[in-house]
Structures are given as C-alpha cells and as structure tokens.
Amino acid sequence: MGAKGACNGLISRAEKNKMAAKVKRALAAKQTALGSKAQKIKWPTGCLEGTFKRPFWLPSGWLHGVKVGTSGYTGRGLQVFIAPDRVHKFYHRVAIEAYLGKKLTAKDGVPPTFDELLANAMHRVPVVSLRPQHEVALFRCLSDEERAALPDAKDIHFCVVSARRTDEPQGIKGCMIVQESFKAAGIKPRWYVDAKSLQNYRRLGFDAVADGGSLCGARNKALAEAKKFGKACCQVSDDISRWVYYGALDNIHATKDQDEANRLSRRARRLVISPVAAARFLLARMRASEAGPKLGGVLPTGNIARGLAHASVTTHHFILGDFFVSEAQSEVRFDPKLTLKEDYDFTCSHLERYPEVLRANRLLITAKHETNAGGACDVRDAAGERERYNIGVLKSKWPGAIKDHPTRANQVTLRWKSLIREKPEGEEEMKVDA
Predict the structure, then answer these.
(1) How far apart are CA 303 and CA 126, in angstroms?
(2) For residue 382, what is the DSSP state?
C-alpha cells in the first residue's frame, strides 16, 4: 500500500492516483457519449465536475462537484456543494443546513439529472478489453465443416433489447458494458427500447429505435428487420457483462457427478470472448448441422459445472432469450400474449416447426437476470401472479412439455420430448418421438 500518509496508510498515493485516472476516464467517456448534447454548466473557479452520486437531500439549483487539486479520501476528489448563487461553497451537509437554517431531508432533494447519472455510471464501467488469442482458440474448437460455415460479423444483425434502464446508474452501467463489448469487436448494435426512454438511450450514443410497445414487440421487430436485411438475428439482453467459452471441456461426456464436474470446471481454461465471436460460433455450428436448426443459444446458467451434466451440444433443450441467434429463414415469432418466459414459447415453436435447436452447453454468459431494475423485472410482481399467468399460457400451448420447476416457485422447465400431441377423436394421445 505504500508509506503512511494523511489516510493513516489505508489508501496509498498510488491507489489515489489510480482512482483519479479512473475519474478522468469516466468523465471523458461521458463527454464522448453525450457529445454536443451534454449539459452546459459554468463551474465556479476552483471547482469542476466529479463522479459522485448526487445526494438525495441536495435541493434544486445546487451543484455538486469536486474541489480542484484535491484527491479526497479515495482519490475521487473532495466533494463540494455549490449554492444557486454560484458563490457560496460548502463541503459538509451540516454547513449547508446551517446556511439554509433547516435540516435537509429527502423531501428537499431532487432526482439527479441524466448527465449526473451518467457521470456516476461511467465511473463504474470497467474497461472492456478482449484478447485476440482467445477468439482464435474459440474458432479452433470448430470442426473443418463448421469453420467453412463460419459467417462474417457483417452478415449478422446484432440487436440489444432493453427498456427503462437509463433511470439509475447501475442500469446505465450495464448498458454501457454491453455497448463497449460490441465496440471492442468493431460492431455498433441496434438497441430496441421503450419509447419513453428512447431519447436517453440516444444521448448515450446508441443506435436506438422504439421497441414496438412491449418485450415481444421489440423482439419481433428485431427479427423482422434482420429478415429484411437478409441477415441472421442475434438478440442480446442489456445486462450481460461477459461471454465465456470452455473449449477444454468440449469433449467431456455428460457427467452427473457434481464433485467431478466442479473439479473439471476449476481446472479448465476459460476463453473470454466478444458477443460477436459468440454469435458467429453458434451460427457456424448451426449451419454445419445436417438437421439445419434455425435457433441457437447458450447454457442458461452461469455455472459451467451444471453444464457438464449435458453433452457439449444438445438439440432439444431450452434456448435462453438473453443471448441467442436466429436464422433469417426462420418464420417463428414471439407470442405477444406472453409478457414473461417468452423464450420458452419461442424455443417450443422452433422445435415444433424445425427438427432441432442448437444449444452450446460450454458457452456461458454472465447476466443479472432478475436482480436489476427495469426491463422485464418491472413486469414481475411480488406475489408472482404475472409469472403464474404466463406459465398457464405456456402449459396450455405446450401440454406436457412445460413442467413446474421442482425447487423454484413460479419457474418452469422444458421437457420437449414429453409434449403431448393432440390426436383425432377416438385415438389416444401420444408423445413426440425422441
């Protein structure tokens, strides 16, 4: 940590310098994203913009920034609060309360502006860096036939489905990580977002369009545009932070021994790749398959040890909506009656129309799923009524194939080979062929 200083040795000067560089990088990224749309603020002499979150108690008209030439406790700078007259400056809440003659509470505060949210969010966004050798190793995992079918990135329409993620720093951070992950691979994806938040997404520098009024509306709009362009469609959720492939485990046969699976996964080499490489990889395997699947996806859990319970590639399993590719020739669309679990129906519809889907069980994503604000999380209710409604729709459409999860309430599993087909009157019902 270095020699002791004013912080009693808890934070070294080197660490503070590192934090100061992070602040500088965050503010530069914010300016790059907003460009000429950035809010124009004339800061008083000795003060400048910082990356701290606006305090919930700070009244309207007050600015909060940092004092020039200070590092503060962590290196982010010493917070300063500037009165509406842009003359009086304070460094503590109690001093402001004394100046105003009252205690400040949440009722006195105002929500942060989009510019303030963005500065704070950019401070949290990590630098996305990819190793080219990892993607080279990824494509070496393909067979000769699969490599011959490997598409170019320009032949894929990359779409990010998002909604209501620009109202708080964590949501903006998640969106920026996805955007930067594509940018690192030389791609600018198209964002399909809710109309209310459209301008905020565009202010971030995203290629954003209105989503069509709902989650399924956004997904179907993206599929329709991809078909119009004559490209495969890759749909991505807005909260994915990493794409990983475990190529060393490709030839491991399915094992139900959890201890053995954990041991193998700990020792396996992990390839951190871009979403572009992941989509190309899936399409290569799909197009080289004799069955000609039109839908491909990743393991629906972030635990590779769980994935070792299955073969490297399976053809009748659930395809997660957070990251998938669909061929332009596919006629399957999302059912607008569903507001949640629409990806289960999408998988079943593909399996009914085409012989197989393709799930790469050594390809994983890291995503927040149900823990972040905005998006489909806003559709869920605490009582689980909307979940149960959507589960009911799924069970009525795909009887026998959609089953209640054995341990998780209001969750389901897909057992496609247990689907009960309706037969003409007088004949017994039958299950689909294995």
Answers:
(1) 22
(2) T
Q: Measuring CA to CA, which residue among 364, 338, 332, 325 is closest to residue 351?
A: 332
For residue 335, how many other CB atoms are within 10 A of its CB?
A: 17
What pLDDT does 256 receive?
79
Q: How far is CA 100 from CA 78, 83, 110, 274, in A?
A: 22, 10, 16, 52
Q: Token pair of 409, please? A: 């309430």
Cα separation, 83 vs 172, whole angstroms: 28
Question: pLDDT per residue over 189-240, tens digit each?
Answer: 999 999 999 999 998 889 999 988 899 999 999 999 999 999 999 999 999 9
Q: How far is CA 365 from CA 104, 177, 238, 320, in A?
A: 44, 13, 12, 10
pTM: 0.85
Torsion, Cα 85 86 92 93, to 10 degrees, reads: 40
Alpha helices by DSSP H, listed for 214-326, are: 215-229, 258-267, 275-288, 304-307
In this structure, the number of other CB atoms found within 10 A of the CB of residue 39 comes to 11
